[in-house]
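[job 0417] fold request received: Tyrosine--tRNA ligase
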Amino acid sequence: MTYHPKSDFMHVMMERGFLADCTDYQGFDEALSKGVVPGYIGFDATATSLHVGSLIQIMTLRWLQKTGHKPITLMGGGTTKVGDPSFRADERPLLTNEQIDSNIAGIKQVFAKYLDYGDTPTGALMLNNAEWLDGLNYLEFLRDIGRHFSVNRMLSFESVKSRLDREQSLSFLEFNYMILQAYDFLELNRRYGCLVQFGGSDQWGNIVNGIDLTRRVLDHEIYGLTTPLLTTSDGKKMGKTADGAIWLNSEQRSPYEFWQFWRNTTDADVGRFLRLYTEMPVEECNRLGALGGAEINEAKVVLANAVTTLCHGADAAAAAEATAREVFEKGGAGDDLPTLELSPAELGDGISIVQLIVRSGLAKSGKDAKRLISENGARLDDAPIGDPGLMLDAAALSSPVKLSAGKKRHALVRLAD
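[job 0417] inference complete; emitting structure tokens
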């Protein structure tokens, strides 16, 4: 559809490619034009960090704040105990309260880099839905909230329907998830005046449920806005690579590896990723994305630096770029590469090259490492490793060695002092 927004936020969403759908373009745009609008996204605490797949949502909240509104990051301390069944083939593993609390602590570290939680009209709020979900009285909840939901309609939502069509079991626990998410929106509107829920386009049904419930119970007008579910131009799910998720916390994925992920963006994605994941002017994003030949590689460095600066800071971005240039342009080892430190006790009389490749994160298993060697993809100090039985002893590791898997993935191995 063609809609010309009045508000800065909607203009950014449309111009930069964040907008998949909105429940009421004009109504939401007018609300944004009248004053500070609180808006939220819920994040279930299923891991100790979010990954790159969540970055479009985080950037949505960042732009909401930058355009004069109030972001709410809602931690799913309550809903994580149920697990969102949307478009999943199986039930999520249930986590203990301790695991959930630990995961929330890790996720909070990410948001502190992107949002300002200061005590101002547009200062972000960090909330936990366990605050209102943990104390619910089941019978009262069924009577006051459950009566507003039609099972027929819930079964028609694509996220549920796709599971049932494949004849895969959907537990009653999971079936309750969309009711709890709808109730979150109601409570956030009642307690904090929250007017909009954001989410990926797979959350449309859950968001609409919350809007309907809030209208029925409070007679308040609220809105939903979804972002596209991103895949890379070669069809891969955003944030997932052959060696696992690209986590946003440095403990799970080093800033160098994070930088390298963006540097390896395919040519066709550069412009789009610059618009979504950086704050560079759109005209500059488009100019860089349209470059060809060797120039597009420099545009990828600009992308990697900008995204890494937001997530890990300017120093980490500069160090990652310097390491990359050292490794790729000069054939050196680079000071900032992921590093495996071995104690003398671990080394013993020697350690196999296969073990080192696995432990340094360049292969998932010994089988993968041996295949990498057999296909001439593994290198030791830039020389091909021909023998999977190679052993390295203290003499071989008297100075750090560089392991490589293909042309783009590297790690250092050194002996601990």
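[job 0417] notes: The longest helix spans residues 97-114. The CA atoms of residues 339 and 412 lie 5 Å apart.
[job 0417] exit 0
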